[in-house]
Write a structure and sequence with these properties.
Elements lengths: L4 E2 L10 H7 L1 E2 L1 H14 L4 E8 L7 E2 L3 E8 L3 E6 L4 E2 L4 E7 L24 E2 L10
Parallel strand pairs: 1-2
Antiparallel strand pairs: 3-5, 3-8, 4-9, 5-6, 6-7
Helix pairs in contact: 1-2
């Protein structure tokens, strides 16, 4: 069985779960879409969550936000699953938006009018705020 490869090159915001699954490559949003497709196939309510992940290894500069899923477990409620890290969500996961998929919870979305080429570069700094001491 081939292992999943964390690779930003072959996928993009509109890559489907089936495409990412066939490639066995992609990023957190791809694994989240695969998780959602499997859960929904089993009639388990599930939603896409976009946000940030405060890494335990001290890395604060990241290339992008993070994605995970939440599934509804009847006797417990909504439970977060981070398939990219193989864990349930913790307080290190910072929720920003919830939707049915990436497009429903995209961090930036809009339309522009006019010609010309453009590119967008993103850098994310995810760090714990310094504690303030009151005197």
């Amino acid at each position: 069985m081939a292992r999943w490869s964390n690779d930003t090159d072959p996928t993009h915001a509109t890559t489907t779960a089936a495409e990412a699954f066939a490639l066995k490559r992609g990023v957190c949003q791809d694994l989240t879409h695969i998780f959602l497709a499997a859960a929904r196939h089993l009639d388990i309510p599930a939603r896409y969550v976009g946000g940030y992940f405060h890494r335990a290894d001290g890395v604060v500069q990241q290339d992008a936000g993070h994605a995970w899923a939440e599934a509804f477990v009847p006797s417990v409620g909504w439970i977060g699953f981070d398939p990219a890290n193989g864990i349930c969500t913790t307080d290190a996961h910072v929720r920003v938006a919830v939707g049915l998929d990436y497009l429903g919870a995209a961090p930036v979305r809009g339309a522009r009018r006019g010609g010309g080429n453009e590119t967008m570069a993103v850098k994310v700094l995810v760090d714990q705020a310094a504690r303030q001491v009151q005197s």
